[in-house]
Amino acid sequence: MLSVTPDILTDLPWGQLLVNGLALGSLYALTAFGIVLIFKTTRVITFAQGETAMFSTFVAFTLLTAFQLPFAVAFLLTMLFAGLFGALIERVVIRRISTTTVLNPVIVTVGLSLILLGAAGWIWGYEIRTFPDPVVGPPYHLGTVVVSQLNALIFVVTLVLMTVLFAFFRFSPTGIAMRAVAENRMAAQLMGISIGRMNALGWGMGAVTGMLIAPINYLDPSMMGDVALKAFAAAVVGGLTSLPGAVVGGLLLGIVDSVVGFEVPELRNTIAFALIVLVLVVRPGGLLGRHETKKV
Amino acid sequence: MHWVRTRGRATAPYGLGLAAVLVIPPLLNIIPGVAPGYVLYLVSLALIYAVVAIGLGILVGHTGQISLGHAGFFAIGAYASALLTLRLGFPFVVAVLVAGSVSAAIGFLLGLPALRLSGPYLAVATLGFGLAIPQLVVWQSSWTGGSSGLHGLPLASLPLGAFTIVFRTDQDYYYLAAAVLIVLTIFARNVVTSHTGRAFVAIRDSEIAARAMGVDLVRYKTTAFALSALYAGIAGALYAHLLHGISPEDFTVLLSVDFLTMIVLGGLGSIGGALSGALLLTFLQNALTRLPVVHDFKNLYIVVLGVILILTIAFFPQGLAGIARNSRLRWATRTLDRPAGAGQIVELGERSGVR
């Protein structure tokens, strides 16, 4: 059993676990953010988010290795690809399925993730590859805590992306339009706002996560399986309807994951699952989400 | 005349099914070029999956509660029976029944938080459950055998008064799996046509309306979960003894998705659909491994699975059962010289299915 005695509590390298957890949590938060964006605009929770991210990461890998592009260029091209790819998925598949039952979107996005998984395995194979490191250099030391260059990059990218996105949603006309879509889809559509764009952004976010996770986890078609589950947990824990909730949920889960992973690595998914159930039983709408009352 | 037809329709599939069960083994011995043992093993596997599919169908198709974690219940049943027979020396029959009960009890417990979750939230929670079970198995490796699993399970046997039937060959086990499936199919049919089944459907169609009509949500939702877990648990136990060994790798998320694909393909809300979906998918999976051109079977199967899911939802939301129902109605109304009227009947038939 999980025996957390006071002795162990003081022995844990808390600072290090916190930093690692926040880095991991940032990645969960980014993926969760995409899931929430898509959910808010289409009422579809995408079980394909992890797989689209994986697919985009393979595209990035190809750009980096076969075409020898610099990381920043590959990064931007991949985001562009992921956005277009997401828009395509939305147009060809998601828009066509009826959302009269909650089962349909779940089944269809699960189907989508299977197709992407199989296709990636087909194109790139299952051998585990090392993804080129976006940054190289000695780690930073903050007292006893070691922050690798990669983790530092993850913090910077997450912080910048979040700031840009929050500013975007707060101040730009497009961002405000997108919030209108999230608020009331039909009314927004009637006002002439495009739903597709917000979706594309949601899918594009996945690509960022994939490219930041691949250097840590290596690159193979199943690399996002674990991360996607945690991102779901994060999105659900934070509240599927709340963008800040996704960030809070992601960071929380990252820290829990890092501490549990240090103590009993076998139980990381189990704890994530227990956390989802616990939060949902207490707050069915998630920590920051609204619980939706069902209309008759 | 009317009652004759309805009676005929209700019993004919059972007669056909029973006939098929009895005819398959001798038929296999006649056909040249097949190994009857292997085919019967494969059919047994399909029948075991069909048990899971029927149980999952009650939960998803009839009650409208999604589960992406049924491989978890399947694993619980398999491990419970394997541990009971190997470690504690329980007789096979007792082990299977206890395995089913343990799984049902856990299903009941999972049903409790599910009362407050709906749609996507429930899907995520059950997905997590399905992932957690194999991890717990690996974690408790001292008695579950960890990631190498449990092997050397005893032969299945059934004590009957003074003597005992031992299921030695693939053919024996095939009869056992078929018998269990038949009993559980009839039981499922009785459940869904009883007041319990109507309560399930009422919950699926509108929870609020069901509650207003006096349907006890707590009772019926947990019942649906427990019942569905019972089926998966019994099937898991049969699976463990079919293979004589299990490991955590047998119970992946992909297996849960397999189960879901079976009932979606067969048609949600139809027992016959779940059955045919399970048989079809198992044989399809096996047929794909035999394609000479495919080197990479796993990828092909995964892609095919995804395509089946999307195409079924997009074009045949009622699955094979819906197609069968429509063609039956078209056949029944073929003599009517009123195309418009015939069309209406077909549409009514579609509407009476799952929404």
Describe this structure in words.
The complex is a heterodimer of chains A (296) and B (355). By secondary structure, chain A is mainly alpha-helical. In chain A, 71% of the residues lie in helices and 2% in strands. Chain A is globular and about 55 Å long. The termini of chain A are far apart. Chain B is mainly α. Helix content of chain B is 76%, strand content 4%. Chain B has helices at residues 2-30, 36-62, 70-87, 92-114, 119-139, 141-144, 170-193, 195-205, 207-212, 217-243, 253-266, 271-290, 297-315, 319-332, 339-351; strands at 150-151, 156-160, 163-167, 245-246. A two-stranded antiparallel sheet of chain B has the order 1-4. Chain B has a two-stranded antiparallel sheet with strand order 2-3. The radius of gyration of chain B is 21 Å and the shape is globular. The relative contact order of chain B is 0.15. Residues 1-8 and 341-355 of chain B have low confidence and may be disordered. Chains A and B meet through helix 5, helix 10 and helix 12 of A and helix 5, helix 9, helix 11 and helix 13 of B.
